[in-house]
Automatic annotation (TrEMBL):
<dbReference type="GO" id="GO:1990107">
    <property type="term" value="F:thiazole synthase activity"/>
</dbReference>
<comment type="function">
    <text>Catalyzes the rearrangement of 1-deoxy-D-xylulose 5-phosphate (DXP) to produce the thiazole phosphate moiety of thiamine. Sulfur is provided by the thiocarboxylate moiety of the carrier protein ThiS. In vitro, sulfur can be provided by H(2)S.</text>
</comment>
<dbReference type="GO" id="GO:0009229">
    <property type="term" value="P:thiamine diphosphate biosynthetic process"/>
</dbReference>
<keyword id="KW-0808">Transferase</keyword>
<dbReference type="Pfam" id="PF05690">
    <property type="entry name" value="ThiG"/>
</dbReference>
<keyword id="KW-0784">Thiamine biosynthesis</keyword>
<feature type="domain" description="Thiazole synthase ThiG">
    <location>
        <begin position="4"/>
        <end position="244"/>
    </location>
</feature>
<keyword id="KW-0704">Schiff base</keyword>
<comment type="pathway">
    <text>Cofactor biosynthesis; thiamine diphosphate biosynthesis.</text>
</comment>
<dbReference type="InterPro" id="IPR008867">
    <property type="entry name" value="ThiG"/>
</dbReference>
<dbReference type="InterPro" id="IPR013785">
    <property type="entry name" value="Aldolase_TIM"/>
</dbReference>
<protein>
    <recommendedName>
        <fullName>thiazole synthase</fullName>
        <ecNumber>2.8.1.10</ecNumber>
    </recommendedName>
</protein>
<dbReference type="InterPro" id="IPR033983">
    <property type="entry name" value="Thiazole_synthase_ThiG"/>
</dbReference>
Amino acid sequence: MLKLGNKEFQSRFILGSGKFSLELIKSAIHNAGAEIITLALRRANLGGAENILDFIPENITILPNTSGAINADEAVRIAKLSKEIGCGNFIKIEVIRDTKYLLPDNYETIKATEKLANLGFYPLAYMYPDLNVARDLANAGAAAVMPLASPIGSNRGLLTKEFIQILIDEIEVPIIVDAGIGNPAQACEVMQMGADAVMVNTAIATASNINQMAKAFKLAVEAGREAYLAGLGRIIKQADASSPLTGFLD
């Protein structure tokens, strides 16, 4: 069971809603088995002909993000707006100043996390994996820490694997790996490492069959979690026969 803020979830796969059509959202959620879906506030079109909120089932927890914020004050303002339109107290904090690599500003993210936690939000903090920053985020009231695997939207996989493992080992709040995961095998691997959940958007949105890829990620996350709970087998340098080598033709 994944516990975030005041809620518990069976699924450990969080689906990003950007980059694919509104008509596909409902079926993608179903195939992903997701209970949480992200929402860029800029996609909410209240009063328009097509409002993304109309395509998300009522039993799904919406995780709005502060995409577009370049400092803590802007992130707090976007979070307040998302609450005003009925998106609840969950908020994924994204504070990005860099426009080429889109790396998060860890220090402004800490400021936003503290402010929003004090306002009663459950902040999920998107960050570059740094142990000291992760500790500060947890102390500031983060409901989860979300380290990037590689630059957002790149599908380049677990470039920060070793640093994510440090966070998994040292940080007590849930670790949700976000950004850069490019295929289901990588999602499985990070869950085997002990991550609490995985969030994926681009790898699904850019697949030839979005619904089929959403299902593939669902199964990969489940397999990785089962493997983590089972405890991975040992690794040695020399061969070790799986059948006895003695007792033949005695």
